[in-house]
Specification:
By secondary structure, the chain is α+β, with helices and mostly antiparallel strands. The protein has one domain (about 1-145). It is built from eight helices and six strands. α7 (about 100-115) runs antiparallel to α8 (about 120-140). It is elongated.
């Protein structure tokens, strides 16, 4: 068990005639799906996800959370409250309205604590910045799966 992060492709990025497939858009995640077994072949996960990234298993997520809690001095962080509060939460989203704040939080952590951060946390923060950019491009939320 563990935690993955995904951003789903927008209608324009899919390059598939969604109407002819009877595809439905999940209003919370932005994911398009066809409610049948046939749709799984037509809209596979690799096609509908602009990015899907494995954060880590439950102990890896706990390790990231603990390091963030330590370096932040316990101050509230979106990274902890929305991303890393446990290693198996699924279905949670971070919407566009929070991207700027999340991005600022990441930049502040990188600038204030960069040299002392573990490589694991540095990689996580860099990947989160990449995911935010993809989510903005696709106009969809960041989804935890």
């Amino acid at each position: 068990m563990g935690l993955d992060i995904a951003v789903y492709r927008s209608r324009g990025s899919l390059g598939v005639d969604l109407d002819s497939l009877g595809a439905i858009k999940d209003p919370d995640t932005g994911q398009y799906y066809v409610p049948s077994n046939f749709g799984r072949d037509v809209l596979p996960r690799e096609l509908v996800a602009a990015i899907r990234w494995r954060v880590g298993n439950t102990s890896g997520v706990a390790e990231l959370r603990e390091e963030l809690e330590r370096v932040s001095g316990g101050r509230p962080l979106i990274l902890i409250e929305k991303c890393l509060y446990n290693g198996i939460h699924g279905g949670d989203t971070i919407g566009n309205e929070q991207f700027g704040k999340l991005e600022n939080e990441i930049h502040e952590l990188q600038m204030a604590h960069g040299p002392q951060l573990s490589d694991y946390l540095k990689n996580f923060l860099a990947k989160m910045l990449e995911i935010i950019q993809i989510a903005r491009k696709e106009k969809n939320p960041i989804v935890f799966v």
